[in-house]
Amino acid sequence: MALRDRSTPPVPPSHHPAIEVMVVDDSAVVRQRLKAIIESDSRFRVSLAADPYEAVAMLSRSVPGVIVLDVEMPRMDGLTFLRKLMKQHPMPVVLCTSVADRAVTALEMGAIEVIAKPNWLDASRLPEWSANMLESIRNAARAGRLPLREDRPQGNADSRHSADVVLPYLPHVPRGTVSDPVVVVGVSTGGVQAIQALLAGFPANAPGMVVVQHMPADFTGAFADRLNNDPRIKLEVAEARHHEPVRQGKVLIVPGGASHGMIKRHGSGYRVELQEGPPVCLHRPSVEVLFRSAAQAAGPAAAGVIMTGMGDDGAGGLLEMREAGSLTIAQNEATCIVFGMPREAIRRGAAKYVVPLDAIATTIQAWVANPEAGTWH
């Protein structure tokens, strides 16, 4: 019988009980480090499994709210375990790995979040990594509709950066005719499957698109390659490069990491600019920055789409796009894995249309085909 940890204060009766997070990793050291990080948030308690077989045995006795899963393990790899888990008992899974291609596969299979393993010897970066890990687990809990009590944020909530630190606000100023429309997309938790479904709905001559998907550095390249090789998707997909032109029939994924992605006017069209800067709305790259740039550079020639994801990144930028005459769309609640970013955009009046995932592409194509109904042409 397990003894209660008396160092942890009891949860008041008025609060929801702590959510169990199962950590599955073959390294005892990593398991203990993750346990300490996760239990620094009193809303969670941690159980530990050394491999998927031990996890299965534990699952037969108690079902956790969230699983944190490594990919490379002996006896059974993490992807095999995830595949079986999603068939037999779907639940929120956060993948903790440094293998980019397998991470994208896991997200396709239903994992909620992916976070790259840190360099445990680099103490200077561990606090930021730990905060990101905890946020990923909170996102997974919310995605699983778990009763996660909302603790009052510590510190000054207004201290986080706005888009102003990267791109100061300016109203859209028309600068002559732009020949083609442009589409910008922002997505987070649950976004891998959502982006796949969205792009599959477009023909090969769809408008040029730029996408911010919240994903760790080095993973967005593998994600772009996976989309580019998806037989359902007729568009060319690539990770964006600095100053790369935005052109018809191509989708550019803004790289995860140290830079924000923006679109800028370039002749009669646009190009992508990657600019270093602090996180905006807690993210880098930030949807907020991308949307603000589209409002300024394209105005009525732009369509903005905000999709599944936790938080409010992009809600303010989408409102700026609507005020600049852009087409603005939010994914509806029924088809979102996490109805956070779209909900906030809708609350602020930023979305002209709120539609299910499978109607977003057709809404944009109708806008492109009928410029007289809009103002982009």
Automatic annotation (TrEMBL):
This is Protein-glutamate methylesterase/protein-glutamine glutaminase. Its main location: cytoplasm. It comes from the Bacteria. Keywords: Chemotaxis, Cytoplasm, Hydrolase, Methyltransferase, Phosphoprotein, Transferase. It catalyses: [protein]-L-glutamate 5-O-methyl ester + H2O = L-glutamyl-[protein] + methanol + H(+); L-glutaminyl-[protein] + H2O = L-glutamyl-[protein] + NH4(+). Residues 176-371 form the CheB-type methylesterase domain. The lineage of its organism: Bacteria, Pseudomonadati, Planctomycetota, Planctomycetia, Isosphaerales. It holds the Pfam family Response_reg. CDD domains: CheB_Rec (cd16432), REC_CheB-like (cd17541). Involved in chemotaxis. Part of a chemotaxis signal transduction system that modulates chemotaxis in response to various stimuli. Catalyzes the demethylation of specific methylglutamate residues introduced into the chemoreceptors (methyl-accepting chemotaxis proteins or MCP) by CheR. Also mediates the irreversible deamidation of specific glutamine residues to glutamic acid. One of its GO terms (molecular function) is methyltransferase activity. It is found in: Cytoplasm. SUPFAM superfamilies: CheY-like, Methylesterase CheB, C-terminal domain.
